[in-house]
Amino acid sequence: MGRKAESTHYRARMMLAQEAARIIVEHGIDDYRAAKIKAAERLGFANRGSLPDNGEIEQALSAHWQLFYADSHSGLLQKLRSAALSAMDLLSVFEPRLVGPVLNGTAGTHSAVNLHVFSDSVEQVADRLRRNQISSKLYERRLNSRRGRTETYAGYRFMHQDASIEATVFPFDGLRQAPISSIDGKPMRRADARTVRAILAE
Fold it and tell me: Is the pLDDT score of 148 beyond 80?
């Protein structure tokens, strides 16, 4: 590929990433692939080889929030991170870790607070929520492991401080090995309560 062709290819990917970011923010879509395909359709790109990767989408999303919604987005992140910290205190016995858009700073108004909690008994987490009079719904989530395969984990979705919390339950030994991120193919970044407090204090 010549230099001019490379430049054209790069510009196409950036245009698609920016449009996908706009779609994610304005329509509350959290599926990066769906947003990329919709962006390609809107911009008339038939060549799927030009689709940006998830890391490029995440960068464009972060830039979009900063460029168009800096003040309101900062307030939203504070609200969601405060709700996350409160939920983490509630579930402290399960060594909770904050992950995903709320931690990474790309969360929107429709984003849930994603927590990883650790217990060899899923029912113990449900019991903790019940004892605190919190109604929850069971869900299952498929995540990529370091062993190169997809594994299914149970979790509980509940409302806390006007935020939707999703607490995915891992066995205790899962604390040492985070699942693989679909954004960059690396182990997911996890933050304990102490780290979240520090972020809120900044």
Answer: no
